[in-house]
User: Fold this.
Amino acid sequence: MRVLMSSLFFAMMLAGCQSTGHDRAELVRICADPASRLPTPGNLYYDECQALYPSSPAQLRKYYQQNAPVY
Assistant:
């Protein structure tokens, strides 16, 4: 019974993760903000925005040089 419930739960989660046209339009709006495309801690949209607007290696290098951790 527990296995069946777990399987059902994961199936529902996967179905909930499928993007609709409305969700896609909302994601485009969110990713239009350049701050949403930066690899900052806590940015929940970075991966999805990279799929829509991939950063060039030069942009990522510049961001890292400006925000590199200091040891």
